[in-house]
Amino acid sequence: MDPRALRHIIAALVLLLFQVAVLNEVSLFGLARPLVYPMILLVLPFDSNRAGVLGLAFVMGLMLDSFSDTPGLHAASLVLVAWLRPHVADMLTPKSGYEGGDRPRIASLGPIWFVTYAGILLAAHHTAYFALEVFSFAAFGRVLGHILFSLFVSLVLVVVLEFLFGPPLERKSLSR
Amino acid sequence: MRNFLKFLLRYYAFFLFLALEVACLILYFRSAEYPNASVVYSANRLAGNGFARYASLVEFTRLDDRNDSLAAENAGLREQLANARMIDSVTERCVDDSLYRQLYTYIPARIIKSSVTARNNYLTLDRGSREGIRPDMGVITDDGIVGKVVAVSEHFSVVMSVLHSKFSTSAALRPTGAIKVADRVAASLAADSAQQGLAAGAAVAAGTGALRPELPFISGRLSWDGKNPGRVQLIDIPGHVQPRPGDAVFTTGFGTLFPEGIPVGTVQEVRQAPGSYFLEIDVALGPYFSGLRHAYVVNYLQKEERQALESEAEEE
User: Fold this and answer.
1) A50·B118 Cβ contact <8 A
2) How close B17 gets to chain A, by Cα (Å)?
3) What ipTM did this prediction achieve?
4) Does B263 fall in a domain?
5) Which residue, of A66, B23, B83, B255, has the greatest Cβ tally within 10 A?
6) In 3-state terms, chain B is what percent helix, strand and coil (to 5)?
7) Is residue B137 classed as helix, strand or coil in its secondary structure?
8) In sequence order, which ranges of chain B are alpha helices (DSSP H)?
9) Does residue A21 sit at the B interface (CB-CB below 8 Å)?
10) Pairing, β B263-272 against β B122-125
11) Is any Cβ of chain B less than 8 angstroms from the Cβ of A68?
12) B119 and A21: CB-CB below 8 Å?
């Protein structure tokens, strides 16, 4: 097996465990509930099989759901991310195309690109998740609060995780 | 036909996405309507065992707290022992066990998983159908109500927490003002009996309130607005009642979940419900939900008979 794929799988399992055992218990100011597991999908190579990514999202979502007694909730928002991912990547294609690398990471495409990419997808994920969870127009303001605060914390965590555990940066990529 | 196949192939990702999304949504909304064993996952043994290990690990770090609460409970139980009691009534009391029949039994269980951060929260217990737990039993802890059982497997059961949009139970309070009135009634009764020369009886009545008439309680519905996991809302309390912060809120025994008089919490804030005669009261929950580790499942022995009668009456 490709050692890089093996590394990705182990990292994915650790991240899922981190989400289930630590982050699921976190609720900052009763509003921000960080959800970082979509990162596993975010950093998959651009040319990954679309059906494979969708299937992975579905299975991973159900696994998370089994830990929080919300069958279908995580899965629904994660499948949405899996579908949007290639479209967002197309939308954000740099002028020179994706020659910097085949994976959406800070090391190859720079921090600004990565934050935009992760921000859009996490926003979609959080919107779907909290809207479905509360599912009431009466609580619109609070859902918006949940989405914005959680999105901010999740995005910061994802970027920090990417800096800490992503591929090592080269000087070139920082100056981009 | 070939064009159609081409079309499908070209957009297969979209159709797969649609199919999976619809499957997720069906699963989600079905489970929100009917939370039962087939869809509430953590009732299954695999995840349950994992949670049990994790819970015992966490519990190890909370032994101090647990010791304190056990000691407190021991003290409470000791107070109920025969040697900690005396007969304070003036009339002679006939002790006859056949007068009292067991109405509720309690099944102790350990909480191996709980959540407070979601809109709809659940807890998982490490006891199940083998120990006699059935769906729709109430769950309480030393200092308050916790929720009701919604799904049971052989060794585990899943509890819908009070902190759930579908949870609702009747709860009541005795406004401080009402207690004052009742005290005055008791005092005047004591004065009457003193005039009649029954000094001993008067002393007892004034001191312990033994002759205090049954206090009126005012009941409403308890539910959670999803905002603060430490606070639930008591609604349908009429506007003429004046509860004060600190008043106790307790169960009524109207439903079949909890016995009467189990504490729920204390009044924290009282508001007039917008455009209504009724009050909306914030109740600070007794138990600290995310720290709960032990609970009792309430087994109401006359539930079947009572529910059968009530549904029969409703049909007519």
Assistant:
1) no
2) 6
3) 0.80
4) no
5) A66
6) 40, 25, 35
7) coil
8) 2-10, 12-33, 45-60, 63-80, 176-195, 199-208, 303-315
9) yes
10) unpaired
11) yes
12) no
Q: Which of A69, A70, A88, A136 is the best residue to mutate to test the B interface, defined by the most B CB atoms within 10 Å of its own CB? A: A69
pLDDT exceeds cutoff 70 at B40: no
Query: How high is the mean pLDDT of chain A?
Result: 83
Contact residues, chain B, for A132 at CB < 8 Å: 25, 28
In this prediction, residue A176 has a pLDDT band, given cuts at 50, 70 and 90, of very low
Q: How many domains does chain B have?
A: 1
pTM above 0.80, yes or no: no
Domain ranges, ordered by start, for chain A? 3-175
CB within 8 Å: B118 and A132 = no
Q: What is the mean pLDDT of chain B?
A: 76
Residue A18 contacts B where some CB pair is shorter than 8 Å: no
User: Residue B254: how many CB atoms within 10 A of its CB?
Assistant: 13
Q: Which residue of A has its CA nearest to B116?
A: A25
**pLDDT per residue as tens digits for the range A90-136:** 888 777 666 656 778 887 788 888 899 999 999 999 999 988 888 77
Q: Give me the helix-helix angle, A73-91 and B12-33, nearest 10°.
A: 150
Q: Give B66-99 pLDDT, tens digit per residue.
A: 777 776 776 667 656 555 454 444 444 444 555 5
Structural domain including B210 reads 178-214
Put simply, the answer to whether B119 touches A25 (Cβ < 8 Å) is no
Which residues of chain A does B12 touch, with a Cβ-Cβ cutoff of 8 Å?
Answer: 50-51
**Residue B105 located in a structural domain:** no
